[in-house]
Write a structure and sequence with these properties.
The complex is a heterotetramer, with two copies of chain A and two copies of chain B. Chain A is globular. By secondary structure, chain A is of the alpha/beta class. The longest helix of chain B has 26 residues. In chain B, 61% of the residues are buried. The chains are: A alpha/beta, B alpha/beta. Bound molecules: thiamine diphosphate (2 copies) and magnesium ion (2 copies).
Chain lengths: 323, 323, 323, 323
């Protein structure tokens, strides 16, 4: 094990998979000469060359669309959308094409594409540049949606996404790149579609993913001081959604708090809450609580933006609220 | 083309025509559902271009795809089976009229979101260059499709990366009911190619011989130098799809174009050039009737796809039984 | 009161609002000369002229984008997206622009735009043309999402949408246009953001909207034969979401079935179910059930498509399941 | 322009420069957050074009918007207040650096999704024609923005409808780190206008006098004949935004361009033309210093927007207290 940042973990996954399989290549805005807007592909252009690290025009629809085409004929593109906010300019390619072509043509070809996109708020980028619209993409069958919360999971899941034959939207969080965590020296894979217990506890089941996993771990520390032990289940994959570990934990705690960074209404946790009630109805002792973003376009003003985003303290209060 | 090839080409155009005439019939009978866009009147474009390609060259088009499916070498019975939604169809009955493809024939569909397949073409051509193969990708689309963002992003990328694509615009004068001049700032559509540093020309799309020659040059150019834009001026004799009120054009206009029926024109040429006499060509037409009737029988006797067929085709990789 | 179709109700709302306010105009594909792909604007072009009934190129991003611009400077555009499936090619304009500009610029201008889009499956149009992705749009604060299930509501809600100053996505259902219902002769408005009880009953609360309202009413008839009386609450607006009538009904029935046409996971009813549990936890006697679309890209094959879509019988069974 | 106007123009360009130099400083101090894109080096374009507009003419640009905000007549203190996220800013502190607008000044933003505002410009011009007003809409964007679908759809619509828009491409040689030749198939960007039947020309964007003249002609053309495309060749002296590693260009290249500093060039002209002497211009610079210092003080002393300010600005119409 070595301790590296999320940025390094993702960068390593890309580098190792490109070394491993020459069909893997990267295309997107500023992935090459610039080295990636978030420095994730720094050094790739010099090492792999412009053939496999392709700077593109600012044209998200053809970035994802050309990657879809290349994937249809057997390459393994990693298409980078600088941020998930720009995914909306490529929406048709992601939800109508990547997600559907395999099925719609009777399965005669596959779409082994990975679409990387950076999401999340909290950096004063204002309404159009600060979104966490993960639930929107998770709604479409045919697409897989992955969003890791630790360097270990990021590396292992990205490798699985690249080696797999299904289209995967891989959502990163800009404020997590500096986060550090243990990662094995040797090659490893983490399975897509498997939720994971990231902290054990017996009082409350806390379900979350991505950046909110870190907030939840912090909240858990706080709560532990008051003797409250929360069990944290990290979804890691939003579609397919693995409720197994969530239900298992909930059957022991009978209480749940669901935490996401995106807007509350029609968000990820609405689905998780509904499935909990559907699948563990008899184990519920208290109403499940959601912690999420207030329903406003995020403002530039720092204080207001922070006020609109879920905070560690909100999680702490929600947990106390279900006890 | 030698005599044999020319007669085969005539046979193919007649086959496309008859399949669609029967399809119209089957649609009225309710055996075909969804949208049905007929190629009647435009056969010379698909047949002329495909006659000039090598099997290694890839083909894509929009939803008006039966003719190009046949010209790509897909059997009439397989096309018919897809129209009837059968498991033996090109797409297992999942795609229908608008979504036919056959990877074996290097025919990649059949795409119903206007312009969405142009990025695929760029990506496939990029993949071929990536692998050092000298394949060319032939991408058909309509006049109306040249006004959507996809067109711009795909042609620009092909231009910047000098990709081996032949862009074939089938200018049939209307995008649904909107005449070219009402939707496009430039009426000579092939001139749009200049904005992408792409060579271009215009050809009479009702004369299969002229289309064949133009396509040969275009394909060679693409294989050796980079993208080429070919505009084929043509006309659809039927409505946009079934149930088109056709308020946007007069019977007289349609009548004038029908006098330039591509099959009639080619028939005349073959007789003038003494490639074949009336009887020989009538014999071809009779053969086609038989093929189409067999195709319909085959399609009607074919099994429907099952629910399991569908569910198994949503994802490729295993991920447990979670949704 | 007069009995008219959904198509007539929507057409009348547009016509009357255009007569009432000359700042109201329509733009979109085939809205003019063709008379609307679904004949909703038939006759408008001749009566109002090309200035106010504007046929556009096939370019959804600029259809919505230009409408946004016109709305910013005071016009009241009704932008028509032939189907909601094509909204994905205009996604950025809808969710990043229409929904956010008013707030992001401090409220100094408004966006009185109505975006009409036709959704729904069941017509064998295959995966890309058969979607009901309403939940996706309802996730974005700043946008209002309306989807009526009766001619009366369609007319009254569309008029409110046109007269209001907020951006509204107005989702219609292609298979409802022929549906008839009573509509007042005189001018009237229905409020956006208000759910409505469409059938009274004391045994089970059934929450739904749009086409599934009709399916639910049919199911209710079935169930009434067995003496089961369901109360049907029609959401009509998905954002803002009015839970009032739902909670009120639920507190008397203590049982609920939620019905939508779209995919189950991350769908509309996940939010409704979650809010029910949050707001009426103590009144729940049985797990709430969801009836929705199976998680597959919809196939062309008629039987399989119907199998994937929610049916009246599914609703009947679900209701019996919660009793 | 008379002497007074020329000196005012010089004053304005210096003001833009100083505001941004201070903004850089304030960004380092952490008083400005988010992204900060500086206009330094490009002042002659915004100032030259705006000097040629009538107040009735509308203005839009991208996120590199401080200079054009000032040139539109917005006060330095209001720009500064927005940069600091204050309620007294152009957008109440909700928009930040990338989203400044002032409807009173006919300045419509300030848009951060590349290309997204081009459709707005078409829509505004359409609205002006709709109302029979002879306003012109001036739409600024970068070289990189000409490769996204928005550009194509908006310019085509303006061409088909002959809208009074002046498209102003600020070709500063790079889209982030991607040189024009690596992203655009055509390097002489103004020639892209031919695909939209739009008149076009290119001007030295470092010489405000030349820009002013070219803009006068372009605006008159737009007002009388229809769309016009003006490419201004310019350069940004600073990074794309704060924290740009600038691996894509050499210090030498930047140095060469800095020798053509638009303010230096104009200063020289004014002295040669005897419009003003060194002292008079230095006096102007001193005045500007004072204005900027006052602006900063005003901004720092201004109040933050409140949570209620934000929530009240999400929707305009009443709809009860539902979310
Ligand atoms: C993005 C998108 N917008 C609208 C449609 C609806 N539509 C289907 S075909 C068509 C007309 C296309 O015209 P053209 O490109 O000229 O092809 P043609 O039908 O004439 O062969 C339209 C508007 C669509 N399928 N996709
Ligand atoms: C749709 C979209 N894609 C990507 C980005 C990220 N981005 C912001 S500015 C920029 C470069 C734009 O270059 P150009 O149009 O030349 O303008 P300049 O910055 O040079 O003024 C990019 C890629 C964005 N904001 N929107
Ligand atoms: Mg056409
Ligand atoms: Mg630039």
């Amino acid at each position: 094990m070595s301790v590296i940042t999320m940025r390094e973990a993702i960068s390593q996954a890309l580098w190792e998979e490109m070394e491993r399989d020459e069909n893997v290549f990267i295309m997107g805005e500023e992935v090459g000469v610039w080295g990636g807007t978030y420095a994730v592909t720094r050094g790739f252009y010099d090492h792999f060359g412009e053939k496999r690290v392709r700077d593109t025009p600012i044209a998200e629809s053809v970035i994802v669309g050309a990657a879809n085409g290349a994937a249809m004929v057997g390459l393994r593109p990693v298409a980078e959308l600088m941020t998930i906010n720009f995914a909306f300019t490529a929406m048709d390619q992601i939800v109508n094409q990547s997600a559907k072509l395999h099925t719609m043509f009777g399965g005669q070809f596959t779409l082994p594409i990975v679409i990387r996109a950076v999401g999340g708020g909290g950096r004063q980028l204002a309404a159009t540049h600060s979104q966490t619209p993960d639930a929107v993409f998770a709604h479409f069958p045919g697409l897989k949606v992955v969003s890791p919360g630790t360097p270990y999971d990021a590396k292992g899941l990205l490798k699985s996404a690249i080696r797999g034959d299904d289209p995967v939207l891989f959502i990163e969080n800009a404020t997590l790149y500096q986060m550090r965590g243990e990662v094995p020296e040797e090659d490893y894979l983490e399975p897509i579609g498997v939720s994971k217990v990231q902290r054990q506890g017996s009082d409350v089941t806390l379900v979350t993913y991505s950046k909110m996993l870190q907030f939840s771990l912090d909240a858990a520390k706080e709560l532990a001081k008051d003797g409250i032990e929360v069990e944290i289940v990290d979804l890691r994959t939003l579609r397919p959604l693995d409720m197994g570990p969530v239900i298992k934990s909930f059957k022991t705690t009978n209480r749940a708090v669901l935490v996401e960074e995106g807007w509350r209404s029609y968000g990820v946790m609405a689905e998780v809450a509904t499935r909990l009630y559907e699948q563990a109805f008899d184990y519920i002792d208290a109403p499940i609580r959601r912690v999420a973003q207030h329903e406003v376009p995020l403002p530039y003003n720092r204080e207001l933006e922070q006020q609109a985003l879920p905070q560690v303290e909100d999680i702490v209060q929600a947990v106390k609220g279900v006890l | 083309m030698n005599k044999k090839q020319k007669i085969a080409l005539f046979h193919e155009m007649v086959l496309i025509r008859r399949i669609e005439e029967h399809a119209m019939q089957l649609y009225q009978e309710g055996k075909i559902g969804g949208f049905l866009h007929l190629y009647i009147g435009q056969e010379a474009v698909g047949s002329g271009v495909l006659a000039a390609r090598k099997p290694q060259d890839r083909v894509l088009t929009a939803y008006r795809d039966h003719g190009i499916a046949i010209a790509s070498g897909i059997e009439a019975k397989t096309v018919m089976a897809e129209l009837l939604g059968k498991k033996t169809g090109t797409s297992k009955g999942f795609g229908g009229s608008m979504h036919m493809a056959d990877v074996e024939k290097n025919y990649w569909g059949g795409h119903a979101i206007v312009g969405s397949h142009l990025p695929f073409a760029a990506g496939m051509a990029m993949a071929d260059r990536y692998r050092g193969e000298d394949n060319v990708t032939l991408c058909f689309f309509g006049d109306g499709a040249t006004n959507i963002g996809y067109f711009h992003e795909a042609l620009n990328l092909a231009g910047v990366w000098e990709l081996p694509v032949v862009w074939i615009c089938e200018n049939n004068q209307y995008g649904m009911g909107t005449a070219v001049a009402r939707a496009s700032a430039v009426e000579e559509i092939h001139k749009k190619a200049e904005a992408y540093n792409t060579a271009h020309s215009r050809v009479d799309g009702m004369d299969v011989s002229k289309v064949y020659e133009a396509a040969q040059e275009a394909i060679q150019h693409a294989r050796e130098k980079g993208p080429y834009f070919l505009e084929a001026v043509t006309y659809r004799f039927e409505g946009h799809s079934m149930g088109d009120p056709e308020r946007y054009r007069t019977k007289a206009e349609v009548g004038e174009w029908e006098e330039h029926d591509p099959i009639g024109i080619f028939r005349k040429q073959l007789i003038e050039e003494k490639v074949a006499d009336e009887d020989a060509l009538n014999e071809q037409e009779k053969q086609v009737e038989g093929i189409v009737e067999q195709a319909i029988r085959y399609a009607e006797e074919s099994p429907d796809p099952t629910w399991d067929d569908l569910v198994e085709t949503v994802y490729v990789d295993e991920y447990g039984d979670v949704i």
